[in-house]
Amino acid sequence: MTHLIDTMKAAGTRGLALAPVAALLLSVAFLLLGNGLLSTLLIVRAGQAGFSSGSIAAMTSAYFSGFTIGALLLPRVITSVGHVRTFAGFAAIASMTALLHAGLVESFAWMSLRMITGLAYAGMILSTESWLNAHALPSTRGQLLSIFGVVSMGSWALGQALLNIAPPAGMTLFLIGSVLISAAVVPITLLPGHPPTEVEQDFVAFRDLLRISPLATVGVFLAGLAIGGFWGMGPTFAQRIGLDVGGISAFMAAVLGGTIALQWPLGWLSDRVPRNLIIAGAALASAAAAIGIVFAASAPLPLLLAAGALFGGFGIPIYSLCAAIANDDLPASRLLGTARGLLLLNGVGTAIGPLVGGAAMNFAGPGGLFLYAAALLAILSALAVVRRCPEHSVEARATRCPSTPMITASLDAMIQTRDSGQSASR
């Protein structure tokens, strides 16, 4: 912990300002703690209730379908009501749906509720990512998004451990999940914070997104297909290879624990060497780890957990790396539109992933889920190597850490380092 704090302080001297987003990060921690618990709880509870594999996959895909719809429709909500109110409103919706799951244990009802929850999370993630990117410089963007990833995955991993507090068949875990999601509203609304100034946002079409960064555009989609299969069917995989509730939570926590360990180093490296090479290496390493999971399914549990940690540690940060390469040198007016496009593509991939992953499991057994992920990640690695991009500057341009609720000075300093109105082709 001391080393992480020292690293974050050192990063601050290179222009990485955390104070403006501290309350946001704390809110995200509560939010993902609750969502991490509920996402695995629902899959385990569905298995206990006798839901078929197809129903579980469809339920998970419904969540990401709602997420995709939200990414398409909700940017205008953020521009209309602001980042804070958007986050708070959708957190309330997610908290309500968490409780409704406990009273409506039926597959079609859960599909509808998961779609609503996915839409709510799209609104919250859109507001947080555009908020973070408004504070980032090209020389520190990978690190800032990595800190966000560490907080997110750390909270999600702790959420898996909460699965052991009470039996999944009872009400207690659903209540805990709802309370945690509601608690996410407190820091962002009551603690001092620095939401970004309201900048008129430009619409970013998909053809523009491809011009901004072809690698990021394809990368977030392929990563969604591969990692989405794990999010949707990972607990089912663990159930099918014979793990109990404790083993399932340990496996999911190991995947997220690997992400916590490697997210920062990957982000740090991506600020110093061409990001496409980091994406290529991370995708290839995650593909190798996915194959390792297949072979470790019948091995002692520590080997399975180690392979899972490497799979998550290299695979889950790919989205943040792609987001960083896409947002380099963008003007403030295009941050929200770019975040929307990347989230939409990632959401489409993640919605399809559980369905294809479930089909792969039916065809090749439980390990088919990770063979499918390995194939997609290997393709992404090859594309990242082929898609060369110019090196971005690693020289830090420090911005002032604002002491007022608005960050106009920081935005002005950031925008001066960019080509106004131009998007970098990566």
Q: What do we call the CATH homologous superfamily?
A: MFS general substrate transporter like domains
| Main sheet overview | none
The helical percent reads over 70%
What's the overall average pLDDT, rounded? 76
Which structural class do you get from the secondary structure elements? Answer: mainly alpha
Question: Can you give a write-up of this model?
Answer:
It is a single chain. By secondary structure, this protein is mostly helical. Helix content is 75%, strand content 0%. The model is unreliable at 1-15 and 390-426 (pLDDT under 50).
List the helices and strands and how they pair.
Elements: H1 2-12, H2 22-48, H3 53-73, H4 75-81, H5 83-103, H6 107-134, H7 141-161, H8 172-183, H9 185-190, H10 206-212, H11 214-240, H12 245-270, H13 275-296, H14 301-315, H15 318-327, H16 335-364, H17 368-386, H18 408-416
Helix pairs in contact: 2-7, 2-8, 2-11, 3-6, 3-11, 3-16, 4-5, 5-6, 5-8, 6-16, 7-12, 7-15, 10-11, 11-12, 11-15, 11-16, 11-17, 12-14, 13-14, 13-15, 13-17, 15-16, 16-17
Compose a concise summary of this entry:
The protein has 426 residues and is mainly alpha-helical.
Attribute tags:
disordered N terminus; globular; Growth Hormone, Chain: A; disordered C terminus; 426 residues; single chain; mainly alpha
